[in-house]
Specification:
By secondary structure, the chain is α/β, with parallel strands linked by helices. It has a single domain, classed as TIM Barrel (Alpha-Beta Barrel). The protein is built from 22 helices and nine strands. Strands 1, 2, 3, 4, 5 and 6 form a six-stranded parallel beta sheet that branches. α11 links the parallel β5 and β6. α5 crosses α20, α10 packs parallel to α11 and α19 packs across α20. It is globular and about 70 Å long. The protein starts with a helix and ends in a 5-residue tail after the last helix. The structure holds zinc ion. Zinc ion binds next to loops.
Length: 469
């Protein structure tokens, strides 16, 4: 728990009215007046307010600093001012899996303390420093597990994530809708949502899909590394040439429920089939641009060009082989081996062996990530890009993007975009407004579909007319 932080925040909130006036409509809870969101409790935020209120340009003339350093500081200051009123909504963080695999003891939510600096890339002080307003926690399950093991592990990961959120009531607040996100941010909590990674965990059951929705899951990545019984993955063999008929029914049922259809990890043919099937905007929760880095996990321009019509959004990942071509080439032989890893320790061992063999990977940088954001803006438009960093507890330096090593670093990325001439309005879109628009459209679609379409009783045996192992 972090009671003292909460008290400090309440203190700031009480006189925070002037600061909150700039909060855009998207982030304002509709039925709540008075108390407004003020993001960070840390001391640097206090000083940021002082700088803003004391007339920065005057100080700029007085202080004898080099112009380069001054520009640097001005960019970061502007980035932070934007994120203070429009905080980051990130769509992919693997902390629940880290707790399961790397916690001591494993799976022990009580023992894994994120109220202070934790061992890996994610904890509450650094989420606050990173100006994160909402986080989709990935309830990831390896795609090599059989259906019953996958389903059990899925329930356990949802349980870990729900207990994690409940453990820090002053800092994390469970959210399952756009209204919840706004409400939690207004209360000063990091809105905490759940996203499934790997449609194999429904074990071909639409009943299971609906049960996961009722447990609070608001997106599902249709596949993980492996092709499943109804959708082809980007990193596995082609079995269906996209979606099967049952796969189409899964997508339609997700739209009826209001669960975002996440097409990170799927093959381009599956992406294309999903775009032809969906009734609401799609989500890529953690992918980057294939034209810049030719990784199978990235989104080709042919798909990016279809996003304006669909309305969906690509949330750019901070994974070195997804954002840097030299890093991708280095990982070319490693990545297929990693898709076979059934546990985190296996993943680490395979990586260590590869580094011993090949030497370390070239580093990816913050500029690479900014290049990907700008490419997606160029091809799909600024309404179709956001941030899904995919922090997963990486331990090797080359697995981290230089400058974006942990959840405290989002403002540095926004400062880079400020230096590239981005407008405040466009920065707000990629910080979170685009994601809120997509999520809201999915909710409105679900409200409409539920009025006209009952729950689907379809089975894979009926629709795909072949035995399922
Ligand atoms: Zn992933």
């Amino acid at each position: 728990m972090s009671g003292s932080e909460s008290k400090e925040r309440r203190g700031i909130l009480e006189d925070g009215d002037a600061v909150s006036r700039g909060i855009p409509a998207h982030y304002q809870p509709r039925a709540q007046g008075g108390v407004q969101f003020l993001h960070s409790v840390s001391k640097h935020m206090m000083s940021l307010r002082l700088i803003r209120w004391s007339g920065g340009p005057v100080f700029g003339l007085v202080l004898a600093v080099s112009s380069a350093a001054q520009t640097e500081d001005a960019a970061l200051r502007r980035a932070k001012a934007i994120l203070r009123t429009t905080p980051i909504i990130d769509t992919h963080n693997d902390l629940p899996w880290i707790i399961r695999e790397k916690g001591t003891p494993p799976r022990d939510v009580e023992a894994y303390d994120i109220s202070k600096r934790a061992r890996f890339d994610t904890d509450i002080p650094r989420l606050r420093e990173g100006m994160v307003g909402a986080q989709f926690w990935s309830v990831y399950v390896p795609s090599g597990l059989g259906p019953l093991d996958a389903m059990r592990t899925q329930l356990e990961q949802i349980d870990i994530a729900r207990r994690l959120i409940a453990k820090y009531p002053n800092d994390l607040g469970f959210a399952a809708s756009v209204a919840d996100i706004r409400r939690q941010i207004a209360r000063g909590r990091i809105a905490s949502l759940l996203g499934i990674e790997g449609g194999h965990t429904i074990a071909n059951s639409l009943g299971a899909l609906r049960a996961y929705y009722d447990l609070g899951v608001r997106y599902m990545t249709l596949t993980h590394f492996h092709t499943n019984d109804w959708a082809d993955a980007a990193t596995d063999s082609v079995r269906h040439n996209g979606l099967t008929r049952f796969g189409g029914e899964v997508v339609r049922e997700m739209n009826r429920l209001g669960m975002l259809v996440d097409i990170s990890h799927v093959s381009p043919a599956t992406m294309s089939d999903v775009l032809a099937t969906v009734e609401a905007p799609v989500l890529f929760s953690h992918s980057s641009a294939r034209a810049l880095t030719d990784h199978a996990r990235n989104v080709p321009d042919s798909i990016l060009r279809r996003l304006p019509q669909n309305g969906g959004v690509v949330m750019v990942a901070f994974i070195p082989p997804f954002v840097s071509e030299p890093a991708r080439q280095w990982s070319e032989e490693l990545f297929p081996r990693l898709t076979q890893a059934a546990s985190d320790s296996q993943w680490q061992r395979l990586t260590r062996e590869y580094v011993a063999e090949k030497g370390p990977s070239p580093r990816a940088t913050i500029k690479d990530v900014a290049d990907h954001i700008e490419h997606i803006r160029k091809v799909a438009g600024v309404n179709h890009v956001g941030i899904g960093a995919d922090f997963y507890g990486a331990e090797a330096e080359h697995d981290l993007v230089q400058g974006l090593e942990d959840v405290s670093r989002y403002p540095a990325l926004f400062a880079e975009l400020v230096r590239r001439g981005w407008t405040d309005a466009d920065l707000r879109k990629i910080a979170g407004e685009n994601l809120l628009r997509v999520f809201r459209q999915a909710e409105v679609t679900a409200e409409r579909l539920r009025r006209t379409r009952p729950s689907s009783n379809a089975t894979i045996e009926e629709l795909d007319r072949r035995p399922v192992p």
